[in-house]
Specification:
The chain is mainly α. A two-stranded antiparallel sheet has the order 1-2. It is globular. The termini are far apart.
Length: 363
């Protein structure tokens, strides 16, 4: 039954989004509470599709082994994020800072909320958990550089006033960002793959034969359908959430937070489940890997769109968010500096996440 649902939810998500695109939500007006009913059903289907995507990603990860397994879901989530940000920016809303707010929100949600939840749940269940210190150090070192040159440096360049890059600067930073991310992928998947695999999981996927390959191909196909469904439904729900936040008088940055939470749903499921299975390295691969992909791929993709369309892209963080970013990285280096974690560090990250959410709603 569960296997059937994992196949039906992605198809239902795509069909629901396609139907809404054909008739539009205004076509539901003759039905009492039609729009409310649609968004309620869409929310349930979206959650089910996210769990289906997590299941299929884990199936692939089990067959092909780490770190390739979580990399599949990470790249897929980045595709979702780029699609949503680009579609919203091109839709006429005129939010030049949406990409910055979304990328910053991803960093805060993942490095504080998701990491804190994984460390707390894992610590409560196993007291202490171990992981590869070299792998965590590699993630954090690249993440600090990428975040610094894309979210902090624009505040201090003088060619163009304000928290923006000039066209040449934006193109150069985009190329450097992609280059650094690709080098990291080479280190992760080829040159130092052992840094990113927990002891005892190194041989996962080696026994995959013909049946394993067929299962991986089927899982990959269903994962693509599931992620397509998440993209289409999340775009519908993101617009509703953004309108609701605006009507409630929430700050503009709240739209970036809501968008980041929607696109990160699959990664949250993968990381939390891995932590509860005492595979903290896989949680780190999913969590920090999604953050790296967000900066390394989302920023260049959105930059290319804005350069082609001659739009402005605001990237520089304000002073308040810069402080949160620095504190987050400092805590992350302390948490992952020993190769062992416990519930205290998880709670510290969750406190930082609570501060981020509070200051987003009440700057």
């Amino acid at each position: 039954m569960t296997k059937l649902l994992h196949g039906l939810f992605p198809i239902a998500a795509v069909a629901l989004a396609a139907g809404a695109a054909l008739i539009g939500t205004e076509g539901l007006a003759p039905i009492p509470f039609g729009a409310t009913l649609f968004y309620g059903i869409a929310s349930i289907v979206l959650i089910g599709t996210v769990f289906a995507a997590v299941h299929h990603a884990e199936t692939i990860a089990h067959i092909v082994g780490e770190p390739f397994g979580t990399r599949v879901a990470t790249i897929a989530v980045t595709v979702i994020e780029v699609s949503l940000i680009a579609s919203i920016m091109l839709g006429g809303e005129g939010n030049a800072a949406l990409a910055r707010d979304t990328v910053f929100s991803v960093i805060m949600i993942v490095c504080n909320g998701l990491v804190g939840l994984c460390l707390l749940l894992g610590g409560l269940r196993y007291r202490e958990q171990t992981f590869s210190e070299q792998g965590a150090s590699a993630y954090l070192s690249v993440l600090v550089v990428l975040a610094g040159i894309t979210l902090v440096l624009p505040n201090y360049t003088i060619t163009v006033p304000g928290p923006v890059f000039s066209g040449a600067q934006l193109a150069f930073v985009s190329v450097m960002t992609i280059a650094l991310y690709l080098i990291f992928l080479f280190i992760q998947t080829v040159h130092h793959r052992d840094y990113f695999v927990q002891e005892g999981a190194k041989h996962a996927g080696n026994a995959a034969g013909a049946s394993g390959r067929r299962e991986a191909l089927l899982g990959a196909g269903l994962l693509v359908v599931a992620l397509l469904g998440v993209i289409l439904l999340a775009k519908k729900l993101a617009a509703v959430v953004a309108s609701g936040l605006a009507a409630a008088g929430a700050p503009p940055a709240a739209a970036g937070v809501s968008l980041a939470m929607l696109v990160l749903l699959p990664e949250v499921g993968i990381a939390v489940r891995a932590a509860r299975q005492n595979d903290l390295q896989r949680s780190i691969n999913a969590a920090l890997g999604s953050t790296l992909a967000t900066i390394g791929l989302t920023i260049p993709a959105v930059a290319m769109v804005t350069l082609v369309l001659d739009q402005q892209l605001v990237l520089g963080l304000d002073a308040e968010h810069t402080v949160l970013l620095v504190l987050t990285f400092a805590i992350s280096f302390l948490s992952f500096g020993t190769g062992r974690t416990n519930i205290l560090m998880g709670f510290v990250h969750l406190v930082m996440f609570a501060v981020f959410l509070f200051l987003t709603l009440l700057p």
